[in-house]
Specification:
about 65% helix, globular, about 160 residues
Length: about 160
Amino acid sequence: MTTQSRLPNPLKLVPEFGPVNGALFKATGNGSIPQTTISLLQLRAGQLVGNTYLTSLHTGNLRKAGESDERIMGVATWQDAHCFTDAERVALALVEAVLTPNPHGERVSDELYAEAAKHYEEKALVTLTISICQVFFYIPLAVIGRPLPGVSPAEQWRD
């Protein structure tokens, strides 16, 4: 059984990665949107790209934050789950629209953007967008590096 990621520790080989990583967390942690909303949309992104590591990571983060199993499991079927606020639904719709090709036009329609703008003021909407960027930033590390679910990155990077 594999006990480490396929990739070596990116921070050792590319130390410039550290400040970028820190800047993303600082930007998304500016308080303009709840951390729970960020974790919900990042869990959905992990589900959509079919990555066990990201799905496990964000499920764990939501559990540590005290989220119920109903809400965590409901992310996969958020469209008909009744446990999300309208603002959370918009966040989930945005990440899904960005990750899912739309054969009928642009991925984020004017209607979806207008709905998001009803729930988030400008700074919050930009922060929400950066939160989607943040999880996209880590998708290649998760898919290419194949880290182990439930194991901290510090414990599994190849030396």
